[in-house]
Write a structure and sequence with these properties.
By secondary structure, the chain is an alpha+beta fold. Helices cover 26% and strands 22% of the residues. The structure holds adenosine monophosphate (AMP).
Length: 116
């Protein structure tokens, strides 16, 4: 655990979150500032800064993050109409929290992939 990492502190139970799914290795919780009717953040419990670092260090765990995202998408009723799964990575993507996380968006048409 990184003591100054917001998402590590959520994993540790030090900061409250609305958890929608937990496995031995992953956690999914509602984003505090949702950008869509469904907006869930999926993380590995272990700290990695971003998806590239995670995928290189532990591809199995990266797959577990994706598997948890897929189960949450099903639980949230998103499989029929579709959803978006997004990993902001680094400065150009506007990553704010440097504990790798997938954003799961759904529940309404999501518009173009990138704002112009
Ligand atoms: P990113 O810009 O990809 O790093 O996304 C970070 C996300 O974390 C943003 O969508 C925030 O709204 C979200 N966030 C920040 N603090 C919390 C929190 N305490 N609980 C849930 N989501 C949070």
């Amino acid at each position: 655990m990184e003591t100054d990492c917001l998402f590590c502190r959520i994993v540790a139970g030090e900061i409250p979150a609305t958890i929608v799914r937990e496995t031995d290795t992953t956690l999914a919780f509602r984003d505090i500032a949702p950008k869509a009717p469904v907006h869930v953040v999926i993380i590995p419990k272990e700290h990695y800064a971003d998806v590239a670092t995670l995928a290189q260090a532990d591809p199995r765990l990266a797959g577990e993050v994706l598997a948890t995202a897929a189960v949450v998408a099903e639980d949230e009723g998103l499989l029929g109409d579709g959803f978006r799964l997004m990993f902001n990575t680094g400065a150009y993507a506007g990553q704010e929290v440097f504990h790798v996380h997938a954003h799961l968006f759904g529940g309404a048409p999501l518009g173009p992939m990138l704002a112009r």
